[in-house]
UniProtKB/TrEMBL annotation:
SUPFAM superfamilies the UniProt entry points to: TT1751-like
Protein name from the UniProt record: DUF302 domain-containing protein
UniProt KW keywords: Signal
Annotated Gene3D superfamilies: TT1751-like domain
Secretion signal span: 1-35
Taxonomic lineage from the root: Bacteria, Pseudomonadati, Pseudomonadota, Gammaproteobacteria, Acidiferrobacterales
Origin: domain of life: Bacteria
């Protein structure tokens, strides 16, 4: 014969179920808030330039600050080659060999972080944004003092690259 749930057992189960649901909702909200904030050290500058112009300005700024565009990846360029139009976006990967050698001397594991990335995206206003994470934020999880010194050397270089590319009138925002 199946067990019957008494009203007393049901009465105690309801508060536990409520507590579980509230916990799940709070956990989901916390994860959603973190996703909206992005990673620590993330900065976005809204510029007055359209996407293709900003991309060229970024490449010029990288060179002007004696860094190297190691690679570029762009879903919008790939989609265009297939006849599909999506808003412009490109990840520009930036580094320099002497910094790479120093980084690897300090931490082989940190090698996965190089090259560092700057993201160019068209926005809904017809202009484009630049987003990047500070090198200090990228390398912080390694808890390596020598790597942190390298990151502190790179921080002002990347800030200057973005500032030059974004140009006058850019609206910087610190996402996290």
């Amino acid at each position: 014969m199946p067990d019957r749930v008494t009203s007393s057992k049901r009465h105690h189960a309801i508060p536990r179920l409520r507590a579980l649901l509230i916990g799940l909702l709070l956990t989901t909200a916390a994860f959603s808030a973190q996703a909206a904030m992005g990673y620590p050290g993330t900065h976005t500058d809204t510029t007055r330039y359209r996407y293709p112009v900003l991309l060229q300005r970024l490449i010029a700024a990288v060179k002007a600050h004696h860094m190297v565009v190691v690679a570029q990846a762009s879903a919008s360029h790939g989609a265009a080659a297939r006849g599909i139009k999506i808003p412009g976006n490109a990840v520009v990967m930036v580094f320099r060999n002497d910094f790479a050698v120093t980084m690897l001397k300090d931490s082989v594991a940190a090698g996965i972080e190089a090259p560092l990335r700057i993201y160019v995206t068209a926005n809904r206003h017809g202009t484009a944004d630049l987003t990047y994470r500070t090198p200090s934020a990228v390398f912080a999880p390694y808890h390596n003092p020598a790597l942190n010194r390298l990151a502190r050397t790179l921080d002002p270089i990347f800030a200057a690259i973005v500032r030059q590319a974004a140009g006058p009138g850019a609206k910087p925002s610190h996402l996290s």
